[in-house]
Amino acid sequence: MRKEYLDESPILVKDFLMYVQNIKGRASLTVDEYYRDLRTFFRYILYTRGMVSHDTPIEEICISNVDEELIKSITVQDILEFFNYCISDRENQAASRARKTTVLNQFFKHLKEKKLIIEKNPMDLLDSPKKKKSLPKYLTLQQSEKLLKVVEGKNKIRDECILTLFLNCGLRLSELVGINVTDINSDRMLRIRGKGNKERMIYLNDACVEAIEAYKKVRPTDKVKDKKALFISRNHNRISNKTVQALVYKYLNEIGANGYSVHKLRHTAATLMYQEGGVDVRVLQDILGHENLSTTQIYTHISEKQSIEAMKSNPLGKSKKSDNNDDE
Q1: Parts of the chain with a pLDDT under 70
Q2: What is the CA radius of gyration of the chain?
Q3: Is-contact 133 298, C-beta < 8 A?
Q4: Which of 137, 146, 191, 195 is catalytic?
Q5: Residues 17-31: pLDDT tens digits?
Q6: 172 among known catalytic residues
Q7: Which residue in 233, 169, 164 sits closest to 200, CA to CA?
Q8: What is the pLDDT of residue 15?
C-alpha cells in the first residue's frame, strides 16, 4: 500500500488497512482500492455533517480528523444517503457500489469484532447492489493474431512479448508487471504472484518462450534501477501499469478493437483455451488463479451461448407450423 495513503488515514482506517494487507493477505492494489472507497465515504460524511467548509471541493477534503466518536455516530441512514450520492453525483454503476458495500461492511465488521469499538454493524441491514451479469468480452482468434502482427516501433520486441504473455497465459495486469527475470526457470515454468500474494506456476508454450528469449536479447541492462524486473521502461524502471495499459490500448485501437481493455486480453486467453483448445474448466481455474470455480465457469457460459445460436441457425430448425401457415 502507498505510504501517502497511510499518512493521510485516521488511526482506525489505518489499522483496518494494515489488517487486510498483513493479516488477510490482500494485495497492495486491493488495499489501495479499500482506502479510496473509505476516503470517499468519510469525505461525504464530513461534508454532509458540516465539519468542513462547503466551499471546499469534496475531492479535496482531508479525512485525517475522522475519529472514534464520528464513526460511532454513523447510521444506516447515513450509509443509504451516501449510496444515493454515489448514484446521483458520482454516477457509480452497480459493480462500483457493490465494491463499496463490501469495503464498508468489512470495515465496520472489523471495528465491531476485532477492535470492539462499536456494538452493531450499520451495514448489516443493507443488501449489496446486484451486479449486472454479462458475458466477458474477448477477441476472436483472428483478432488476436492480427493484434500480434501490428506491433511496431523501437519497443516492438518488448511489446510483442507483453502481448504474447497476455494472450497465452491469461495474466492480470499487476501479475505481468510484477514478473522478475528469476521467475522464469529452465523447465519453462513461470512463477506468478497473483491476488493476495498467492503464487502459481504457469507453463510457457513455444510462443511465450520464443518471445521472452527474443526480448532478453534486447532488454536494457545498463542503468536499470530494478534489476530483477523482466519488463523495463524507457526510464530504466520496472514497467508501470499505466505504460502497459497505454501500449495495449494503442495496438487494440489499431486493429479496430476500440472499447477493449487490458483485462479483455485475459478473457481472450481463457476463452481461446476453453473453446479452441478444449482445456478443462478446472485446469483453466488453476492457470487463471481463480480461487473459486464459479468465477472460471463464466467461460463455459460463452460456449453455451454459442451452442444456442448454432442450434437456432440450423436450416431444419424452423417450425413446421410456420411453414404450413406460409402455404395457406
Answers
A1: 1-6, 127-135, 302-328
A2: 24
A3: no
A4: 195
A5: 999 888 888 877 788
A6: yes
A7: 169
A8: 92
Buried b (16+ CB within 10 A) or exposed e, 277-307: eebeeeebbebbbbeeeeebebbeebeeeee
Catalytic residue among 100, 110, 172, 238: 172
Backbone phi and psi for residue 292, each to the nearest 5 degrees, phi listed first:
-115, 140
Using alpha carbons only, give the angle 116, 118, 119 rounded to the nearest 5 degrees: 95
Q: Which of 110, 264, 266, 267 is catalytic?
A: 266
The confidence score (pLDDT) of residue 205 equals 92
User: Which is nearest to 141 in space by CA: 10, 277, 25, 22?
Assistant: 277
Say if residues 170 and 266 touch (Cβ distance below 8 Å).
Answer: yes
DSSP conformation class of 183: G
> What pLDDT, on the 0 to 100 scale, is given for residue 275?
81
From the candidates 14, 99, 193, 263, give the one annotated as an active-site residue.
Answer: 263
Active site residue 282: no
Q: Find where cell 471541493 sits.
A: 57
Check if 2 is active-site: no
- Per annotation, catalytic residue among 34, 138, 215, 299: 299
Q: Rounded to a whole number, what is the distance in angstroms from the first to the last CA of the chain?
A: 73
pLDDT for 67 equals 92
For helices 156-169 and 141-149, what crossing angle results, to 10°?
160
Q: Examine the residue annotation and report whether 290 is marked as an active-site residue of this protein.
A: yes
Active-site annotation holds for 263: yes
The answer to whether 25 touches 88, Cβ cutoff 8 Å, is no
Give the C-alpha separation, 303 to 285, whole Å. Answer: 16
Report pLDDT digits (tens) over 134-143. 667 889 999 9
For residue 319, the model assigns a pLDDT of: 62
CB-based contacts of 232: which residues, under 8 Å, 6+ apart?
A: 158, 219, 220, 224, 226, 238, 239
Asked if 236 is an active-site residue, the reply is no
